[in-house]
Task: structure prediction
Amino acid sequence: MPKTLYDKIWESHLVEEQKDGTSLLYIDRHLVHEVTSPQAFEGLRINKRKVRAPKSTLAVVDHNVPTSDRSKGIKDKESAIQVEALSKNCKDFGIEFFGLTDKRQGIVHVIGPEQGFTQPGMTIVCGDSHTSTHGAFGALAFGIGTSEVEHVLATQTLIQSRAKNFKICVDGKLPEGVTAKDVILSIIGKIGTAGGTGYVIEYCGEVFRNFSMEERMTVCNMSIEGGARAGLVAPDQKTFDYIKGRPMAPQNKDWDKALAYWKTLFTEENAKFDREVYLNGDDIVPTVTWGTSPQDISPVTGKVPDPKTEKNEDRKKSMLRSLEYMGLEPNTPIQEISIDKVFIGSCTNGRIEDLRAVAKVVKGKKVNKQVSAMVVPGSGLVKIQAEKEGIDKILKEAGFDWREPGCSMCLGMNPDQLKPKERCASTSNRNFEGRQGRGGRTHLVSPVMAAAAAIEGKFVDIRKFS
Amino acid sequence: MKKFERFKALAAHVSIMNVDTDMIIPKQFLKTIKRTGLGAGLFYELRFDEKGNEIKDFILNQAPFNKAKILISGKNFGCGSSREHAPWALLDFGIKCVIAPSFADIFYNNCFKNGILPIVLDEKLVKELSELADKKREIEIDLEDQKIHKGDNQPIDFDIDPFKKECLIKGYDDIALTLNKNQKISIFEDKKKTLTPWLYT
Result:
């Protein structure tokens, strides 16, 4: 029977499968960060267990780190303890660790690909739901809880059940100003925030083939916002070119062997998907979220919806709650919503291409006086590259705050937070209540839409912005 | 892990769809390096105002629901972040079972690792149970027989993966179970080293 890409990766990692479908899956690579790992290492110590494959594991601090000057360390005591705990755990268990002052430090899902740690056909896990990002390379990558982190550290395997196959196909050509972020927000708007539950998504079609690796990562990153633990794009020449020469990529003869294998990683013709959804790229528009779930999307030219027109009672209740939290009136045009803050960064949109696109929009312009805008590079290496290209200068001249790398205001575990009722145009991935700070109001947008909003002080249609 | 035993208790009904793990346990509680004590942060922003005063309207602040051992909620419960702090917070608060029409995958799995039973039921049945909960009627959870008893001789059946059920009932440490298969893992690893050698250099 013809196989999907997911079937191939799943089957090649099966250590054993019980009759009821419970399977032991081998894990090739494990990324670790400071927030979801301390209890796992504690568990290993209590039970006198070792890390089975330290060389397959890479650790970094990202969630809790300040993005302001770090020369004096971390002021917040609890954050400092957590960061220090990871450093010690890595030392004790022999795991490679990128600490606070390492130039390779950055968001875990930015540094994996950047180092060549992420490769096609692998199984990759991390105690973080946005691990789906690595699926952009044709790797089966998904987020796990801390108990599973401990399980992988101890056994290099996970107990799993096979997921169903979900094909999302976007053909056509995206209009100018429409980005990968708008594509994934449109997909989530269509399938809903639980639409992908129990599935692994494969993104197929012309739009994804034409996407750069950065754009594919943006899409795969938010698979979890559509309920799917993992999203995949079949590897191609762009994937191979991106990986080649990176520090942890295969070298010399190994490269040739790896490449031959990677070229076998595609969905075979007539393979069966359990669900298929088709979108036309030409119809996708710049998108803004209005509510407190990533599925609450509107075209930038649209209006805040009116719960009165919603027939489903549960949905109506949920919309009313969202609008109250967001401080929005039904039928308000999206382009009349003023903002207080702009956050550009995160594992969704904190890569070099995102920063280049932002710089292009804001060059020679000034951030609106009502707005405080910050740019947080996804990693130290992204920051260095941006500075080499003069992107930092353009951003600073426009009035953006240029920060040190980390997760920052995507989840606000560090001091970068929204105050109650502050409204933010954010390139991150979640607009949940309180996500960016208690009472904070998040609108998810693409980097270019966030950049234009920073200049105008409200949402504008990037297609008409000059 | 503590064995999951049949129990009878009051359920609290949190009538919200898409309850995310940020809502269950906000960011400021993730800085801990321990698994315990997180009950204080459960649904923090729904339970306490900005000054830290209890919000009386919220169900988990109202007696007798502040002692509830079962939570009933809306579709897609536990979506968002993979933080296991969410089930840790529920457990620390005393919640041993969550009933909803559907759950997000990672949260669902995380529950089993901590001795919490998540039960998926048809929306109509969830509604029926939530009405009983609102009337402060206790219900009994019987995992062994996969039944919810509500005192009317018409118990509700529920489905569960047999392996997950066994782990809960017996309180298995699944790392120990997997470590028993160490030899099998080594054989698999040796095979992989031949097939994909670049992963091991």
